[in-house]
Design goal:
about 230 residues, mainly alpha, Tetracycline Repressor, domain 2, HTH-type_TetR-like_transc_reg
Length: about 230
């Protein structure tokens, strides 16, 4: 029987797309062994190229991981931006779509997500390279979508009562990341709570927005945003 990885190599590798093939190979290895559980040579082997070939694009494994994170942030930002859709049809319904898009990305691209938000890496493990990717324009664009959503949601408050928007955006990101990590990356919370990740995130964010005073007082008004 033909090794499935060999079939993937034949389908994926074409002259000129070596960089993309190596990034995809890295994602597969990350899913199996974790962000730092493989070498550049192993990525080359899975991609079906010589051990020297990756050095045309990446100086080492950490540079490859940084590219996984950077390209992940590009797709992540695009998904968030599409979900937010400039706050249409309403800021609240678009905000709820934004939360769902966040979790969907974490579920669809677990390897990219894990590297994008890798916080336990030391400099020796490539932490510096990943940190640089997390500060890239694509990562900033993703945060700016959350910032735009925060501004739209808080706009109804009197200017003197509006909280710092960057802080609100960071709170939203932190809550979303926590739910994604517990329910999707680790999966442990899903066994203890009879709710989906989406339900937990939505209820948490609504409680948070209620505390800020940006939701209507009437429950019926707040529930009619979809």
């Amino acid at each position: 029987m033909t090794d499935p990885s060999r079939r993937w190599q034949r389908r994926s590798y074409h002259h000129g797309n070596l960089k993309e093939v190596l990034v995809e190979a890295a994602r597969k290895l990350i899913e199996e062994h974790g962000a730092f559980g493989f070498s550049l040579t192993e990525a080359a082997r899975l991609a079906g190229v010589s051990p020297a070939a990756p050095y045309r694009h990446f100086r080492d494994r950490d540079a490859l991981l940084a590219e996984v994170a950077r390209s992940g942030f590009e797709r992540f930002a695009a998904r968030l931006d599409a979900a937010w859709n400039n706050g249409i049809p309403t800021p609240l319904s678009a905000f709820e779509a934004l939360g769902r898009a966040y979790l969907t990305f974490a579920r669809d691209e677990p390897a990219s997500y894990a590297v994008m938000f890798e916080t336990g890496a030391s400099a020796d493990e490539g932490g510096d390279a990943i940190q640089a990717a997390s500060s890239s324009p694509a990562a900033e664009k993703a945060f700016n979508v959350l910032l735009e959503a925060a501004a739209a949601l808080c706009r109804q408050l009197p200017e003197s009562e509006r909280p710092p928007l960057k802080l609100v955006a960071m709170h939203i990101w932190t809550m979303s990341h926590g739910v994604a990590s517990l329910f999707i990356q680790e999966g442990s919370a899903a066994k203890k709570v009879p709710l989906s990740a989406e339900e937990v995130l939505e209820s948490g964010l609504l409680i948070y927005l209620k505390g800020l005073g940006v939701l209507p007082e009437s429950p019926d008004e707040g529930a009619s945003a979809e």
